[in-house]
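Bench notes, afternoon.
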Amino acid sequence: MKRRTAFLAAVAAALPLAAQAQPITGLYVGAGGGVNIMQNETDKSVNGVTSAPGKSLQMDVGATGVGSLGWGFGNGLRAELEFDYRYNSLDQSINPGFRNGTLHGSEQKFGPMANVLYDFNGLSPAFVPYIGAGAGYQWADVSATNFHTATGTAGEFAYQAIVGAAIPISAVPGLSVTGEYRLMGLAGDRTYDGNGVTAVRTDDFNHSVLIGLRYAFGAAPAPAPMAPGSVAIPAPAPARSYLVFFDWDKATLTGRAQQIVKEAADNATKVQYTRIDVNGYTDTSGTPQYNQGLSIRRGQAVAAELVRDGVPKNAIAIQGFGETHLLVATGPGVREPQNRRVEIIIH
């Protein structure tokens, strides 16, 4: 056991940057940069003449940068606005049946995007994978100095898919290193009419790999690590037994009784229960037969309120004990408020 404790302590010391990942709640900012790989852009037509199949522009590997402002909802869901920039230099013009020509110039893309992302918190104590999708608008600016390549700026609706992971930095609460892959595409055709040529192009697909930083404001510091050999003190378990009291000869819930039932229903979601007992009781006023029926009606009223508060009906067992099992011992015919009750027990 001592060697195991020492090993765990050594692992913790060897990973000073890792921190327990927490869901993002509230405002955050992010920025990243990396490489952008463009698929070939197809020329659909040049100067009004339909291009031969396969006529396209080929790009070199380029660069990309992204800045974002977002909001985390505390349940893994995030929404953000971003502005991105991509740059790729032109490589060559591909024209089947003709000699391909080396190009000099570039294509730059930039614009705003709105993204929705989901963090898979709890899968790992050290990193959080996430996925997302976005939509927005991108301007594509093409410049070229040879081969009569059409140039200019054209804008189109854009969409993207995002897969990434975040690694929190324990030294700075709220700060994380991020790694992402993004696929972004521009929808529709774009018309360029500069450099003495008019061309209609399509198929602007971009594969981007980025490394970045993200900072969530208001993040709580990570709990201090336990010293080797120390024992963690578990948090108090939610209450598992509740008493609901009734007015004399009544089976209706008071406002306070409804609050207690709601508290019991809420805490039932925090434990792995197998069943919930709802046991009804009465005082000794009235006949034993009447009190038996009254105790069952009280139990049914509490069970119905539990169901309204989200507890599955098939998880509840109702029993009536009438004037037996008194909470306060009395003689017959006594109206004792504490005996007019229902007990909720979460097993």
